[in-house]
């Protein structure tokens, strides 16, 4: 009986301690709303970043909790792609108008990451490389517009990070001797690595630092013009045998970022990073979302937590609905990418003419630029507002922090370098109420709300 009583009292003691010792109360920093600012975007009305009074409500809603003590990636920023074609149409603007546009795009609270092609992309007026014949390397074909425009942009924002991506190797290095498809022959691995090194060094001489490089844009899509197939095994061998050693020998500090294609094949990046000889040269991996799920970024991050992930391309189409695309991209690309650890979020082309050009023969004929530039007229399209919605409030150096939003209300939160917190909240559908800590908020129908506090 004594033994039974001892066991019984021991059980009672453990049970009475369990609430305090096994489930301690979680300490969360209280938010200070005393000087908070609210900015509302309503895409159906084409009203963006409008400062409003607190959208308070007398009715409570589902709880949203922000935890500044829980920290994730530090942001490199948000941006677009400056293809040769987009540089061409922007550079035709009158100098005063072009200067004002670049200040708007790249000045304070503007674009902080820019993606460019190494040679032609499919949104250039013609296919070319910087070495169309062996031993003839030259940046001359980008000197009429892309290079001088980049210099003007860097004068506005010297801290801009530039990512470079080749759409194809020079055709004489490929098995099919064509700008479309084919693959890089192994006997030219070192020659191609040296070509990429010459590009980085040549741009540096022009005063244009290349922050990062992907070895191949969309390596599993050989159907574009230009394009080049590069399997994971091929990319790994190229990095091990040529690109990594050449960069190391020439002391090139540009980050190497692998994959640069859709979220439906996260194993491409994971398998490459599993190889020690590859991973020692590689900073991280990049993704698009024409196929797959944005959660692929988290799968790669979980497999290799010491390697960064980036989102590097998503188009808006000529036939797309403005409001629908604005909301979809904010949910999946902006909020989706950052909540799956992306350090940078880059949409597709910065500018096109009214006919969605220039583009190569066989290139994208329905890619809508963030800007449409016809003569001296500038129209701001979906991608402009998608990227500006983020970069106006979340500058480089911001740290993503913990947030637990209600089901069906996508959101993200950041601590900025100035110490302020930013909360981004998307409401798809009817007006609804939420409670953020002890503050009741009313979310307008089909809206995007930004809170700065």
CATH topology of the largest domain: TIM Barrel
Q: What is the total number of structural domains?
A: 2
* Corresponding CATH superfamily of the largest domain: Glycosidases
What's the Cα radius of gyration? Answer: 25 Å
Write the layout of secondary structure elements.
Layout lengths: L1 H21 L14 E6 L4 E6 L9 E13 L2 E5 L2 H8 L3 H12 L6 E6 L27 H11 L4 E6 L22 H17 L6 E2 L18 H18 L5 E9 L2 H8 L2 H4 L4 E9 L3 H8 L4 E6 L2 E2 L4 H18 L2 E8 L1 E2 L14 E2 L2 E4 L2 E4 L1 H10 L7 E6 L6 E5 L5 E7 L4 E5 L2 E5 L3 E6 L1
Parallel strand pairs: 3-20, 4-5, 4-12, 5-6, 6-7, 7-8, 8-9, 9-10, 10-12, 13-15
Antiparallel strand pairs: 1-2, 1-22, 3-17, 11-14, 15-16, 17-18, 18-19, 19-22, 20-21
Give the tags.
about 450 residues; Immunoglobulin-like; eight-stranded parallel β-barrel; GH30_C; hydrolase; Glyco_hydro_b; hydrolase activity
What does this molecule look like?
- The protein is an alpha/beta fold and 453 residues long.
- It folds into two domains: 26-72 and 401-452, Sandwich (Immunoglobulin-like); 76-396, Glycosidases (TIM Barrel).
- It is built from eleven helices and 22 strands.
- The strands form four sheets. Strands 2-1-22-19-18-17-3-20-21 form a nine-stranded mixed sheet.
- Helix 7 runs parallel beside helix 9.
- The longest helix is centred in the N-terminal third of the chain and has 21 residues, at 2-22.
- This is Glycoside hydrolase family 30 beta sandwich domain-containing protein.
């Amino acid at each position: 009986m004594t033994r039974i009583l001892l066991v019984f009292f021991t059980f009672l003691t453990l049970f009475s301690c369990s609430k305090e010792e096994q489930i301690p109360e979680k300490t969360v920093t209280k938010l200070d709303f005393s000087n908070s600012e609210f900015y509302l975007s309503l895409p159906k009305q084409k009203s963006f970043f409008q400062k409003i009074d607190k959208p308070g409500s007398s009715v409570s809603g589902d709880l949203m909790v922000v935890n500044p003590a829980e920290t994730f990636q530090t942001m490199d920023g948000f941006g677009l792609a400056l293809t040769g074609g987009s540089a061409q149409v922007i550079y035709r603007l009158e100098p005063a108008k072009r200067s004002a546009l670049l200040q708007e795009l790249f000045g304070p609270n503007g674009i902080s990451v820019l993606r460019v092609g190494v040679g032609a992309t499919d949104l250039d007026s013609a296919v070319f490389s910087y070495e169309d014949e062996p031993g003839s390397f030259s940046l001359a074909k980008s000197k009429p517009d892309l290079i001088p425009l980049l210099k003007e942009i860097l004068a506005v924002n010297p801290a801009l990070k530039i990512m470079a991506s080749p759409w194809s190797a020079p055709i004489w290095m490929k098995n099919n001797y064509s700008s479309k498809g084919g693959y890089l022959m192994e006997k030219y691995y070192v020659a191609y690595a040296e070509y990429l090194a010459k590009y980085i060094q040549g741009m540096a001489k022009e005063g244009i630092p290349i922050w990062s490089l992907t070895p191949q844009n969309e390596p599993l899509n050989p159907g574009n013009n230009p394009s080049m197939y590069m399997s994971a095994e091929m990319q790994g061998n190229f990095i091990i045998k040529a690109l990594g050693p050449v960069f190391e020998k020439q002391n090139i500090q540009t980050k190497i970022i692998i994959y640069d294609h859709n979220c439906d094949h996260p194993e491409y990046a994971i398998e490459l990073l599993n190889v020690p000889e590859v991973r020692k040269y590689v900073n991280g991996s990049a993704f698009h979302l024409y196929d797959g799920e944005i959660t692929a970024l988290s799968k790669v991050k979980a497999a290799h937590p010491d390697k960064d992930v980036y989102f590097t391309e998503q188009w808006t189409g000529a036939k797309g609905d403005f409001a629908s695309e604005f909301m979809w991209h904010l949910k999946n690309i902006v909020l989706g990418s950052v909540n799956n650890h992306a350090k940078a979020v880059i949409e597709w082309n910065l500018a096109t003419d009214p006919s969605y050009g220039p583009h190569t023969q066989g290139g994208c004929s329905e890619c809508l630029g963030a800007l449409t530039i016809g003569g001296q007229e500038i129209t701001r399209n979906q991608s402009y507002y998608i990227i500006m919605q983020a970069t106006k409030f979340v500058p480089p150096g911001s740290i993503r922090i913990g947030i637990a939003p209600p089901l069906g209300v996508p959101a993200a939160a950041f601590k900025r370098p100035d110490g302020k917190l930013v909360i981004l909240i998307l409401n798809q559908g009817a007006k609804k109420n939420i409670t953020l800590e002890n503050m009741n908020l009313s979310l307008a129908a089909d809206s995007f709300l930004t809170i700065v506090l």
